[in-house]
Amino acid sequence: MDGEMNVIFVTAIFLLPSTAGAFSAKWDHFTFTQEWPQTACLMGKAEHKKCNIPNYINSFIIHGLWPSSGKTEGPKNCSSVHFDMNKIKNLTNELQHAWPNIYSNTRPDDFWKYEWKTHGTCALSLNTTGTEYLFFRKTLDLMKIYNASMFLSKVNIIPSDTTQYVTKTIESVLQNKLGVMPTLQCYRSEFQSGKRQTNLLAEIRICMTKQFKLIKCPDGDSTLYWNRLSQTQRCYGGKIYIPEIKRK
Ligand SMILES: *[C@@H]1O[C@H](CO)[C@@H](O)[C@H](O)[C@H]1NC(C)=O
Ligand SMILES: *[C@@H]1O[C@H](CO)[C@@H](O)[C@H](O)[C@H]1NC(C)=O
Ligand SMILES: *[C@@H]1O[C@H](CO)[C@@H](O)[C@H](O)[C@H]1NC(C)=O
Ligand SMILES: *[C@@H]1O[C@H](CO)[C@@H](O)[C@H](O)[C@H]1NC(C)=O
Predict the structure, then answer these.
(1) pTM, 2 dp
(2) Closest CA to 168 of 157, 160, 220, 208
(3) Catalytic residue numbers?
């Protein structure tokens, strides 16, 4: 009798969560990442991607909202729920402003599709991000609150090809506004041909709990999520550029 109960119990465990199981990849916080479009352009150039920053973009844009796991890389490609542009059709305008694909030799919605497949499918386990629509809606809402350009322009930290900024100054401005320390990622490059290589601000990453309460990002996740020719690294100390946006 006992044995039989166990069999039923065990079977139930395997059968019931068969759909939930697809969403059960382990992760413990979100990394909300904003990128500096001009640096992303230069990174794309290293990978032979064409770049075209729309005229209306003058500030940080969303890179993504990534379910993350401690100091290590979060799960990716958690389920086969396909990206469907129709489900976020009524967000298109907002997405184009806050989360544009600046690589013009790819389809405009490729960026959203990639971020959905890689990261969004891992956030399906939460009520708050449990559908494609909710995932994109939530990420757009986070950008409204945590838009780094909003914080930095107020203290006159603006893009410049001639003025460098002290990394620690940028960090403490953001820490002051957010109440937690974000992670700054840099890309080492010459941003004007012939000039020596310097650190360019590439990304600002803000970490939060699954309930969207801000937390300090775990140390040591600096190389997360890059599997690209052009890698970013933590902006350790020193001075960095926020390169001016160049249009075609
Ligand atoms: C996730 O899917 C993408 C696109 O199909 C693929 O390039 C990548 O290797 C996959 N990553 C993992 C960790 O499975
Ligand atoms: C936008 O579309 C989503 C999903 O199709 C829907 O749930 C939501 O209510 C729509 N919002 C508006 C403002 O129309
Ligand atoms: C971020 O803030 C800047 C400066 O205030 C603003 O121009 C830009 O439109 C904002 N971006 C988003 C996506 O809200
Ligand atoms: C998800 O939402 C449902 C309905 O609003 C609620 O009953 C449930 O407790 C929520 N689950 C979590 C994990 O928040």
Answers:
(1) 0.87
(2) 157
(3) 63, 115, 119
